[in-house]
Amino acid sequence: MTKGSAAVGAATTVQRRAARPRADALRNRERIVTAAREMIVEHGTEVPLDEVARRAGVGNATLYRHFPDRDDLMGYVVLSVMDRIAALVEEALAEDADAFDGLRRFAHAAVDERIGAICPMLSAAFSEDHPDLLATRDRLDSGVRTIMERARAAGQLRDDVTVGDLLVSLTQLTRPLPGTCCVGNDRFVHRHLQLFLDGLRAPARSVLPGEAVTLEALRGC
Amino acid sequence: MTKGSAAVGAATTVQRRAARPRADALRNRERIVTAAREMIVEHGTEVPLDEVARRAGVGNATLYRHFPDRDDLMGYVVLSVMDRIAALVEEALAEDADAFDGLRRFAHAAVDERIGAICPMLSAAFSEDHPDLLATRDRLDSGVRTIMERARAAGQLRDDVTVGDLLVSLTQLTRPLPGTCCVGNDRFVHRHLQLFLDGLRAPARSVLPGEAVTLEALRGC
Amino acid sequence: MTKGSAAVGAATTVQRRAARPRADALRNRERIVTAAREMIVEHGTEVPLDEVARRAGVGNATLYRHFPDRDDLMGYVVLSVMDRIAALVEEALAEDADAFDGLRRFAHAAVDERIGAICPMLSAAFSEDHPDLLATRDRLDSGVRTIMERARAAGQLRDDVTVGDLLVSLTQLTRPLPGTCCVGNDRFVHRHLQLFLDGLRAPARSVLPGEAVTLEALRGC
Amino acid sequence: MTKGSAAVGAATTVQRRAARPRADALRNRERIVTAAREMIVEHGTEVPLDEVARRAGVGNATLYRHFPDRDDLMGYVVLSVMDRIAALVEEALAEDADAFDGLRRFAHAAVDERIGAICPMLSAAFSEDHPDLLATRDRLDSGVRTIMERARAAGQLRDDVTVGDLLVSLTQLTRPLPGTCCVGNDRFVHRHLQLFLDGLRAPARSVLPGEAVTLEALRGC
DNA sequence: TATGAATGAGTTTTCATTCAT
DNA sequence: AATGAATGAAAACTCATTCAT
């Protein structure tokens, strides 16, 4: 938008400040992140970047042009997953269902987005100062907070559970068991997630030890 | 046991054909497994075997003499952890406390044995036909089954949770977050485990999806 | 010269078939060579060409349009330095000072033009058949020859030293020590150059071994 | 020696402190350093380490076992050359010839050991804290100092030239011209070295600018 | 024409595993 | 039996050069 109008008058002068992100480059970027996400889900976080590049249909150096090193790429994979998860929680909020059911549906949907497979990179990602990442984290944080508050207001959620508690537990419970193909893993994850969510609904039996977990607290850890 | 008595009687000077488990060889074996377990807990499952050997105070070739390849060593690490976990459940059974409390104490103790750190290797390990592993698995299975049945008999445990459900959830919840030092992780694990256990105690809210998880079912997956 | 006059007359709007050295294209060419020279001085001859292009404020493909490959660019860098050195010697000849002093001033001025940093490319450059390079080499050769002859006529320069001897020695003595920042190097170069020049002034103590070095002899070597 | 006698009594206990450097390993180490030196002389300091390994007749990983990274290997190459140069100066001191002639013979011999080819790494090497390197540097320093003092005492060497001045100039003057095969280079080096040495012998014409160069001063630069 | 993007070949380094003492 | 050494295959990353806008 701004881009468009700026370009109209400025095509001749040197001032081409931040340049337009070329269409094919954007497509490649997207393809690389997608390929990386898929391969992480299928083969774990140790995938060779050359394989990712091949899957994306680009040369390895193209990958490195877009993402200077492994961590950088991983940051963007995490960002893309967090973005999708944030969208899911916002969708769940939009539907006017039973409060706890919304929470439950969100959680299972997040699992289907393979949030667990990305987990090993989450803590690292939260340590980054990447502004986009922080923004998305806050968006996710606030969405989940809202959905939890609604359930809590309806008396459907124990008091001492935080956003961080939920997301970390959810993520951990659904992490792939290495050596296990995805499909094998899927036999458990929804089951155990259900079990866990049922527990959240029940009244507190005991005082939770440790500090309440917040997404901010995950940083620098 | 057999091992112990064999070692006692075999310390003669004569060279016997096969299977002479020399005392120092046994000690080395033990040291290697211990070193491997510690390093996995501290640095993840990707530790170079040379590092393990150094930590064990033996040459790398000695490691390979005892464990033909990486998987073999890992199998024994898993075995040793399972052995300790099995012992823990047996201890918990021996104490005559409140039934659910026994279960809870066992679970938290298992976490302190870093069961979560070994997790990534569990499914692989269960795929082996190693007889020792199967025996220990059965011992663990039956111990946990018993402690769960006691709690269930006391009306303290929902009906549809299996041994596999418990062990897999427990292990997943306490897996280290890579990039996170152990100590960082410890801030959550007991908290989330408590949360999960509280849920187990409550009456079932919903029907668990998926098949009930048994330790046998983990094999070949 | 020829270049200059051509540019003057060609700034019309009509598109001519071949060779239309557009003003901005010439400016880019100049900027690229300058950037290359500066970066070589600062970071050695291994600078990535992309860096050179960035420093010049042009795209990398523009660099390649002007200079088909690395060697070609380097040839022009050498040419530009040789051109400056040739100008320096001509300046020194114009001043009417003591003959040896002129030679000395020229040498120190050449060092300040970083002739030593370009050195690694000189022999390669001399191997080219590039006509501009040969012309400039001859100009330099004759300038230095003249200044040396004047000193020799005044009895201030030993007989057996050639233009090539002087230029090669001068260049070698002032080559940057890789791993050493420029400034570190500068602590020595003028000192050692002085030492060397003092030696040139003294009567010959011994017969110089090897063949007398001429600039032509540097070719194809 | 110590090794031998210690081994006699200690073969059984664990105390094998620093172990004996195995014969074949030593040979490989030597071969790698030699290959590296040769290839640096022939192809410059940028030689791929895989090529060095191939030339040494060992696998690349063997090279890395002995020298953890490029700098480490280079440090030892420099050490080996400095060691040979130090030996040369000691030999020159042992012969009772004319003082300046000893200095001259040493210088030309050092050139034949390709001291110039190693030059680009010298300043880096002097920044290292490697104790062996420092020891050898001091040995070289003191040898050259002695030979210079003898010449100075005989009135054959100008007063203001230091050990560092000599070694740096000598090294610079004989650096290979990249792009030039060794043999091409050899046409000049002895000639220009002679020229330089002749200058050292003459009385000082002018005051040398800059600080006097010492080998210590090369450190950290 | 000028440019950002793409790319494959090359370099450094690591590690599971085998070999020789 | 125990060990240090050796090794090749792989993985991360770089760069000169070509392509497409």
What does this structure look like?
Chain A has 221 residues and is mainly alpha-helical. Chain A has a domain at 69-218: Tetracycline Repressor, domain 2 (Orthogonal Bundle), CATH 1.10.357.10. Chain A has ten helices and no strands. In chain A, helix 5 crosses helix 7 (115-127) and helix 6 packs antiparallel against helix 10 (182-201). Chain A is elongated, with a radius of gyration of 20 Å. The model of chain A is unreliable at 1-17 (pLDDT under 50). Chains in contact: A-B, C-D. Chains A and B meet through helix 7, helix 9 and helix 10 of A and helix 7, helix 9 and helix 10 of B. Chain A binds a DNA duplex (21 and 21 nucleotides) through residues 16, 19, 22-25, 28, 48-50, 58-62, 64-66, 68-70.
List keywords for this structure.
transcription (chains A, B, C, D), mainly alpha, homotetramer, Homeodomain-like_sf (chains A, B, C, D), 10 helices, HTH_TetR (chains A, B, C, D), about 220 residues, about 0% strand, Tetracycline Repressor, domain 2, DNA-binding
